What does this fold into?
Amino acid sequence: MATLGVLLVEYEEMPLQPEPGVSYRGDEFAKFPSLIPNTKWVQQPGHCLVAGQRVFIWCGKESVKISVSDEYWVSEENVASAEAVERALEASNLERVDPPANTRHYICPQFYPEYFG
It folds into this structure.
């Protein structure tokens, strides 16, 4: 994440987490930090900037997903943002999975052939 310019929040002790089975109002639930699985209290990056582009990063046990859009369609701006982020990723040691999945939610050849040669 440091290679991408993303600063991670690391807690010295386990932060308060929601209790299973307990209902919380949205504003109360938002106070609990989401933690990266299998870490000792590292907060999910969430919304941040990579290569000057607004992205959403979510770390799983075995993968890191970076989304460049929260829209429900693919625009030229989304493609330009993705290209800028991909250039930044070239310097990281993250393995690239392209396309991440064949779904309308990702820019992939199956659903967006106009972006692929």
About this structure: The CA atoms of residues 5 and 50 lie 7 Å apart. The first strand starts at residue 46 and ends at 50. The first helix runs from residue 26 to 29.
